[in-house]
Amino acid sequence: MGNALRFLCGKCFEPSAADSGSLGPHGVSSATVGVSALAHDLFQFDITSQVPEGLSNHVVSSKKAQANWYRKLVDAWRESKPPPKTPEEAARLVIQTLKRHQKADVEGLLAFYGLPLPHTLVEVAAQPPTSLPDGVKFEFHTLPVDAKAVADGDTVTVYVSTTDPRESAYVPGNVHAAAVQRSAARARRNYEQADALHQQIIDSGYRVIVHQNEEVLAKKYRIRLRGIDAPESAMPYGKEAKNELTKIVQGKSLRVLVYGEDRYGRYVGDLYCNGVFVQEMMLKKGLAWHYSAYDKRPELETWEKQARAKRVGLWASKNPEKPWEWRKDKREAR
């Protein structure tokens, strides 16, 4: 068992403010430390043969039965290569390992750790395109995305290194000069001048970002996810949509296929994260609508219908308000 569990146990951390509203009874959330908490308890069970305190409040079977589950989970975790790293992976391992046990016990165990319940898990169908689809103007690969860069469930700010061949040819001369001067100012420890030069760079749509212990000059892009419309922040499920998109992209480098710009200056594009089509995930989790007025792709409609049928996310409501109608009402009320 050893190393895999010790590694995950060392990754335990306090939930962030963004997760504070979705804590499970074990004191964890699906977006933060549920996987680490499960790994910790399996590690402890392997030593003591004791199941965690409080579990009996969330399942229906006896402690003897619970110990049987944990023995099975210890073996399954040991055999998994690599061990689960995401809440979805951990949930699937639990569900598969305990598939012959009572539904109430399996769901109670998942809820105890703040892991996704079976009906909320989605299987990804779309594969990243090997050639550029019709209508794509260009593509780029981003630097790792900061959680604060996610504005809501369908908009994210990303940065692309100017060492990228496409970007390097378009860096304005004043931006390049300011970057060189900033480096020189920092070398002289003239941080006031360096900060002023960095502000000039930011005002021009660029930023100096530390990546892999090196400073990188990067171009800023605001991306509007093509074909979906997530609830606005002030709407029901707006916070959940933003948190889900954050969970998908945080710390990841994205592949972005750009189709154009909208009237707000955002680049409209498809996002792929580790081979996963981000819009598919948002639709299947019930945290976005298919924006059919602007995108007629039938697969988007299918994914929305699947979420509706499962009544996940915003579809748990009987009559969720459409974001575009909500925005229209707000404009007319001014």
TrEMBL record:
Keywords: Endonuclease, Hydrolase, Nuclease. GO terms for cellular component: cytoplasm. InterPro entries: SNase_OB-fold_sf, Staphylococal_nuclease_OB-fold. Residues 141-317 form the TNase-like domain. The keyword Disulfide bond does not apply. Gene3D superfamilies: 2.40.50.90. PROSITE patterns: TNASE_3 (PS50830). SUPFAM superfamilies: Staphylococcal nuclease. The keyword Nucleus does not apply. GO terms for molecular function: endonuclease activity; hydrolase activity. This is TNase-like domain-containing protein.
